[in-house]
């Protein structure tokens, strides 16, 4: 044996470490409430469900998409059919119906879906008189069915939480009473 380093052993150890790192990067665990969108060269190759999934590092790009329900608060200012203007607060619940479309830009998808839900909520208020509006729980599923599927999100619940009717600002003008001469004297 010589005192020279064994290049073959070092190369084998380095190769084994690289192979182990590639294997760790290639194995993805997808949870029960997730989907994995796999892209290769910018095109969607697959959408996989729960379990252990194998992707090719450096070729494939994976994005996790949660399929848990998403909730968002809505605000809209609109008028009812009887010309009463109000500020409405609502809440919408979405589910991910198309992980492919949702995974491209989740924040923009949620913003577009919320705008569509706000339009439905404002339209609901505008088509009714103030006394005919249903309050929490009344028509939430019916309203949600009117929200179009937007960017991979489907509304499953849309409810009206609160309706504020601002009063016009009219200052109250009352004359300042003259002080009573008996109470005004300190002597």
TrEMBL record:
Key word Endoplasmic reticulum present: no
Domain Band: start-end pairs: 30-106
Stored Pfam families: Band_7
Transmembrane stretches, start-end: 12-31
Entry keyword set: Membrane, Transmembrane, Transmembrane helix
Keyword Secreted set for record: no
InterPro entries (alphabetical): Band_7, Band_7/SPFH_dom_sf
Name of the protein this chain belongs to: Band 7 domain-containing protein
Source organism: Actinocorallia aurantiaca
Lineage start: Bacteria, Bacillati, Actinomycetota, Actinomycetes, Streptosporangiales
